[in-house]
Amino acid sequence: MLVKATASFAFTATRTSSVVFMSRRFTVVPPAIDTNQQPRRTTSACMTMSSTNSNGDDTTSPTKWSDIFTSPSNVGYNLNLLFPPLTSTSHKGSHGRIAILGGSTKYSGAPYYDAQSALLCGVDLATVFCAYEASVPIKCYSPELMVQSVYSEGELDGLLGEEQGLLEELQTCKKQNRNGGASEESIHSIDEEEVMQTMEKLELSTEKQQSQLLLQKKNQMDSLVGRLETIKELEEKLQLLKQRQQTTIKRTVDTITSSFPTLHALCVGPGMGRHPLLFTAISQILQKAMESQLTLVLDADALFMLSLEEYRDLYKELRGYERCVMTPNLKEWSRLCGSHDDEGETTTERNDNIIVQKGYADVITYKSITLECNEEGGLKRSGGIGDVLAGTISAFMAWDTVLTRDDASVDSAQQQRLFAVWVACCVVKKATELAYKEKRRAMSAIDVLNGIGGVVGDMENELTTLYRNDQK
Asked: What is the pTM (predicted TM-score) of this model?
């Protein structure tokens, strides 16, 4: 059986705005593998703060995977905690169970890239929760994915369209009342001056004219009563429609949250779309995920949702949730900062979660600790590579959940996640580099996806070689 490499590794950081300093020391420790049960994180992933190496010189953190073998740091992150070891006692699900929440009529490829990249990294099971309209295409992409439709875009569109129609009709009726000089209280309170004028006309008029005036007033009153009854009826219909919407939303929320006990990580957003009713369901799902202490990876449309004013409080909660990774590109990051950064400080300085700012160099932050992934990557910016990254991060976060001990401190556990996310970024950059070298302009996300498994395997082999050399 292949022995897992276990180089003990950690970053030692000073709190600066952009650079992580660390000391030069590298320790190789034997793997703590129990063949009778799944590996758990040991307490060796602790962190001590230092800003200089043994010679008193400042050094910067590694920015490429190869740097961890040439510029090791001082404390804390164990490389054997990156990959759950394969053992004879492993069972289906031992090495990660993830779910992707996304996928719509227009965007069915994004959740596929997410889920498939996680499988190619090495997780055992991947489920896609998506719109009914996207479920068949996604099923056809891969027989390995479990695909479950949890809502219908057509149903949501119908409910929203019906609501908009009722609101427009209600607004029209109320406007007609205002324009007619009547209000909802007019049926009980008639203008006194208008009554006197009517009486004077009746006294001076003939019997025929009196009958016409009375009929005119009766018609006006009947029209007023009719409009008020229509308004009441529309309001009742609107209330019943709201109940139907809540029932539909609850069905979606209950279906997804019932799977939480079986999941190690949930990725939300890829290809999800921006339907307002779906956003309502997603906000409830994210709240329940935090209550369940489920690891979250938020990407694409989930980040757009969090930039909206009505979800400002939810964004703040997620920003303070340690088991949350956000993966914004430049536009998404600008939108988040522009929507919520009104306190005179940068968003990264306040976050307790992990933020991955995607770009030519990926910047990963936790509080004021910053890691940077400068793997070469490729020059072709194909659609879908961000989805591959979100799925890869989901895999590493699932493994982190598998390996985490409950007695690990919050800060050390979170910094271990930070390192795992950095490694995931390295995986995708290296896979992109290989795909670009082979395909050049013809490179697409599927080429990057197909390289993920080989890159992860090479990384594990390098760790194995490191461990064996240390034993000689």
From this structure: 0.78
